[in-house]
Amino acid sequence: AAPGASGPAADARARLDACVAAQRARSDEILALQTQAALLRKKADSAEEKMMRLELDKKLAASAQRFAEAARLSAEAKALAAAVESDRAQADALAGQADAMGEEQEAARQQEESLRAEVLASEESAARDRLAALHAHARAARALLRKAAAGGWVLASPEVEASLRADCEESEEEAEALCRRYGLARTGAERGPMDAGSEGDGPRTPSPPARDAEAAGAALGPAGLPAGAAVLGGQRSEE
Question: What is the pTM (predicted TM-score) of this model?
Answer without folding.
Answer: 0.54
